[in-house]
Write a structure and sequence with these properties.
alpha/beta; five-stranded antiparallel sheet; four-stranded parallel sheet; 15 helices; globular
């Protein structure tokens, strides 16, 4: 970490017209790039805060308390290092559920991090209702629903020509918008033909709020407002009921399974096998670094399998190949990109990683599928490609100086904690 960290934003130091070169892939196994279907990259700034707390207290004390102080500069470094950790663990596509909007420019800072490091990014533009936040937590810019919709349109228009950037709509949670607001979200998602993603049935509070405010359950509310008739990626679904699984299947909804964050928060798990039996695409995700607290997709693969085996009390459920499909082609299906992502096929985008099994975590390795699910670690990822470009080679990122970026994130996180009144 010697030397001063780079200024913000750093100048790009690579050429998009660099000549192709031949990779030495000897001794490695090629896998489709993993698709991380749910994340909150700004939470890299808040890693390790609020462990052993329930959702509402964790949100109040560890997220909202610092929300107002997040700037484009420190969210850029958070996103950059979060994407670096993902590229090291085979992730080539990241869906970032960006609900931190205490001031303008935060979404653009995340997208710039996507562009600078070279990962494929889906910026899911979120919205949090901050009007009712107490004064100590109220951000400098209190965003209205109109601000939210206007910015979704701007981002979609501004970045639509970038082959590695997609913009989605992410209206927080069921209490984030009015009934009319959700209808307008659904209308806009259909108009722009873009993904819509929402935290869904994560805890009992979802249905309790919906029943009190709207007189129907959460899933019924989303059906009533047209949300289910979009390209919907429902996140968590820990409390989904059997009849609601049938409803999701009927509307073509996809689900993001966030095993590690759900376990840390003490949630119930979703019945993955039931969802799969109904043909519902289920992708895997790390969730944010404040509720995981890692961006390591290999941990997600293993724990996602183990929790379902324990839940069903059946070691045969979700075999290794099924988990690999969930991390790749089912992840692509969940974001409606299965035609060009999620598998190694002629005509698809060249998003993949090369894994060297000759390391202490995976050797001896005779079954490349079982090894990648139960034994793999970032130590074995030799090379990662996105859109045919080598963004990680011989374990080193090609576009950024990783050590200096890590140094800068440490500084930014320290400043944010100081502003929020934390000593460490």
């Amino acid at each position: 970490m010697a030397g001063s960290p780079p200024s913000f934003p750093p100048k790009r130091c690579w050429s998009s017209t660099a000549p192709p070169h031949v990779l030495d892939a000897s001794g490695t196994i090629a896998y489709p790039g993993f698709i991380n279907t749910h994340n909150h990259l700004f939470q890299m700034l808040l890693k390790n805060l609020g462990k052993d707390l329930g959702l509402i207290r964790w949100l109040d004390e560890c997220i909202i308390a610092h929300y107002r102080n997040i700037t484009p500069e420190n969210i850029y470094w958070a996103a950059l290092v979060g994407c670096a950790e993902q590229l090291h663990s085979g992730v080539t596509t990241c869906v970032d559920y960006q609900y931190a909007h205490g001031r303008p420019g935060l979404s653009d800072a995340v997208i710039k991090a996507f562009q600078d490091i070279g990962i494929r990014g889906v910026l899911a533009r979120g919205h949090a209702n901050t009007e009712d936040y107490p004064d100590p937590c109220k951000p400098p810019h209190v965003e209205t629903m109109e601000d939210f919709f206007d910015d979704v349109r701007r981002l979609h228009s501004q970045y639509r020509s970038d082959p590695r950037i997609d913009v989605a709509i992410a209206p927080g949670i069921v209490w984030s918008l009015s009934e009319d607001g959700f209808r307008r979200c659904a209308d806009l998602a259909r108009e722009l033909d873009t993904l819509l993603t929402i935290h869904t049935l994560e805890t009992e509070e979802d249905n309790a709020f919906c029943l009190e405010r709207h007189g129907v359950s959460t899933i019924e509310f989303y059906e009533k407002t047209g949300v289910l008739d979009t390209k919907l990626l429902a996140v968590h679904c820990a409390l989904i009921q059997p009849h609601e699984v049938e409803t999701l299947a009927r509307h073509g909804v996809s689900v993001s399974y966030n095993a590690i964050s759900n376990m840390l928060m003490g949630y119930q798990t979703l019945p993955v096998c039931q969802l799969l039996e109904h043909g519902i695409p289920v992708g895997l995700a790390t969730d944010g670094a404040a509720s995981n607290d890692s961006q390591n997709m290999f941990e997600v693969l293993k724990i996602s399998a183990l929790w379902q085996k324990a839940f069903y009390r059946d070691p045969t459920v979700l075999p290794a190949m099924r988990l690999l499909e969930m991390a790749t082609i089912d992840g692509a299906r969940s974001i409606h990109r299965e035609k060009d992502l999620g598998s190694l096929e002629v005509g698809k985008r060249a998003d993949l990683f090369l894994y060297d099994p000759m390391n202490c975590t995976t050797v001896p390795s005779f079954d490349p599928v079982t090894s990648i699910i139960y034994n793999a670690s970032p130590a074995g990822v030799r090379t990662t490609l996105v859109e045919g470009e080598v963004v990680l080679e011989d374990g080193r990122l090609t576009r950024i100086e990783e050590a200096r970026s890590v140094f800068r994130l440490q500084e930014e996180a320290a400043l944010l904690r100081e502003k929020g009144g934390l000593k460490s």
